[in-house]
Specification:
The protein is built from 13 helices and 18 strands. With 474 residues, it is of the alpha+beta class. Strands 15-12-14-13-17-18-16 form a 7-stranded antiparallel sheet, sandwiched between helices. Strands 5-6-10-8-9 form a 5-stranded antiparallel sheet. A 4-stranded mixed sheet has the order 1-2-4-3, with helices on one face. The C terminus is likely disordered. The structure holds (2R)-2-hydroxypentanedioic acid (2HG) and zinc ion. (2R)-2-hydroxypentanedioic acid (2HG) binds next to β18.
Amino acid sequence: MSDIAAVLERELGAGRVIGPGDDRLDDYGRDESPALLVPDDARHPPACAVLCERTDEVAAVLRVCAERGVPVVPRGAGSGMTGGCLPVAGGVVLSTERMQRVVEIAEDDLVAVVEPGVITGRLQEAVEARGLFYPPDPASLDFCSIGGNAATCAGGPRAFKYGVTREYVLGLEVALMGGEVLRVGRRTSKGVTGYDLVAGFVGSEGTFGVITELTVKLLPLPPGVATVLGVFADVPAASAAITALLRRGIRPRVLELADRASIDHVRPRARYRFPDGAGAIVLVEVDGDPDALDAEVERIGQACEGAGALDVLAAQSASERRALWEARRLISKSLRDAHRVKLNEDVCVPRGAITEMLARIARTSADLDLPIAVFGHAGDGNLHVNVLSDDDPADPAVARRLDQAVHRVLADTIDLRGTLSGEHGIGVTKRDVMTLEQSERVLEWQRRWKAMWDPAGLLNPGKVLPRRRGACSE
Ligand code: 2HG
Ligand code: ZN
């Protein structure tokens, strides 16, 4: 066992440190990010992984590592898609996966207090059983954890109506490099006392501190939900339906889009039988008073039909709703299973620019002869652009084409006044393209912000901010 692993085992006790030689250690050097997007100099196995169970243990790890100058990489469930929890400089992976307690669900206060390892879907079930609602619903909700959601400010389909994780985190307990433990924020829904430190920690991808407890806002559970699927011949028709339904004053909680390539990948697996000629789908969900939902569904149907829908399906039962969601949630996995390479960008463009963005993506796909599947949260302009290939990425010509495709997607996003990541974060895979969007001065102020919390740069080093004078590979 390495030196640091032995020290931490003495500190935390037996069975809590996964050291070199243990088969499980490899898992702590991986997440869901595409290997091709992780820079070569950022691949390092961790020295060890530590399974913390309490705040004082997290603080102890941060103290011991700070004293010895060892990097620490916080990790939730490892479901991130941009390498935010990869140990790119080696060091200790600090896992909060065992911190799984729902400390409190306070019905009258409309808050829950939870440890960071609680699986998001389990929190939702626990509060829904009491008539309450925690809206953020990342696609990975069955296996991602709430601490990781807060660290990356995760989104999800329901963000269109309800907003992203940041809107639900009221207060945090965080442990800083060196071992100090702070409580920031509040338990009330409103509050403007001092600077908004919670907003800074949320989305900082574990580079400011390690979240050890969260106080999250809950809402009353909407009494009714209705789900509608519109199927169209192409993306422009689907976009026209989206515009039409928003102009009718409908405020769906979900407004999802998927293109032909995405549909073709889920078609063989989904229970819903997509009509031939399906070139785009729009998944719409509304919630609220059950008596009012039928009329809303009717208006959504009219908006879809007015835009030339090939089929409109309003789910009549919980099982039909599940079938529609299953088709949507299967897209990411189906693309991954079908191709040797799946490079997923997570760009966000102003909603009015979606059709233009998709047209540009189609040109990039044709010019570079690479299939590109696009799906995602159209209501927010958040598009998951997946560049696909079955060729060997070790072939320099293939690698160059893939790199060009990704850079064209990013450049078009910025050109259309969008942003590089809508919900997956920057991590390590997008770190060096930050300069496409943000000025050197803005990056410099962010470096100072990071240095305030972690002057020695030991907490999750190599993430979010590009190296000085960040290089873009094109
Ligand atoms: C989703 O919305 C996820 O399904 C995954 O954010 C996105 O695989 C992807 O590109
Ligand atoms: Zn998504």
